[in-house]
Amino acid sequence: MVVRMRVNRSKTGKRRSHHAIAGQRLATCECGASRISHRACPQCGKYNGKIIIDIVAQSSRTARRAKRKQTELRAAGQSEETKEKETTKTA
Ligand SMILES: [Zn+2]
Predict the structure, then answer these.
(1) Which pLDDT score is estimated for 77?
(2) How far is ligand 1, taken at its centre, from the CA of residue 47, in Å?
(3) How far is the CA of 2 from the centre of ligand 1 (A)?
(4) CB 30 within 8 A of CB 40
(5) Ligand 1 center to residue 21 CA distance, Å?
(6) Residues 33, 41: contact at Cβ < 8 Å?
(7) Fewest CB atoms within 10 Å of the CB: 3, 32, 33, 39?
(8) What is the mean pLDDT of each run of 10 residues along the chain (91 residues)?
(9) Cα-to-centroid distance, 32 and ligand 1 (Å)
């Protein structure tokens, strides 16, 4: 394929010099934490003054899931605690 109007590297570089991604626009929440604009606050779970995310329920859910995963790993013998014991035995 013949390139009829080849653009040189300098021209390409000059064009792409404006293609950099700008940083995220951060807004300050009413709770004081900085949040992404047009998104609910991850700290207090509010958006536009209304509670959107139930932070208390979410934190308890993640804790419960972590605990369950740990018990499953322990049952399978892949827990970090058991691994540490094994390494100390061999060393
Ligand atoms: Zn907030």
Answers:
(1) 85
(2) 8
(3) 57
(4) no
(5) 26
(6) yes
(7) 3
(8) 81 94 90 91 91 92 95 84 58 53
(9) 6
